[in-house]
Task: structure prediction
Amino acid sequence: MPAAPSPFLRWSATTATVMVLALIVIGGFAQVVGAARWRQFEHIWAMAAGAAVLAMFVEALWESKDQPLVFRGASASLVLALLQGWLGTWAAPPGLQHALALLDMVLALALLAALVFTAFHARGACPRCAGIQPSLRRQLSLAAWIVLALTVCQMLAGTEVRTSIDAVAGHRPDLGRGEWI
Result:
């Protein structure tokens, strides 16, 4: 039987998950507000969240023999965090802003899912799920896929609305923000 994950691995996986979730909220707020100071805060928080993901990966690498699922989740999280960081350095050409915003949100959702998976396994929560009936497991899986599909649809609609609002704001600079929102 494999050894239990170390306390640091449990802590780092949970911390990285919470930090990335907070980063998604901060990023959404910064996008809506549009203030430069919030964008700067978002970038600083992103660096701290990236460091938390890296620390989780290093600890998972150290324990990879005993915790292969945690290592796989941590590896996927690191790759997705690096992609997200690389994508954040891009300045999108005008025609690709919509697609880049959607890709950014999909990557953020995938990163959060990988981190939740990793934290779930690092906390040893899987044995607790062993008693779930197969029919209930299928229903929960179906519900999760439906929620994921609805989330992606919401992201598509949100980026479309945001693109339309930006177009209105660009064509009517004389209107105050409160008049067109």
Summary: Helices lie at 7-33, 36-62, 68-88, 97-122, 126-129, 134-171, 177-180. The chain has a mean pLDDT of 81. The radius of gyration is 19 Å. The CA atoms of residues 60 and 71 lie 5 Å apart.
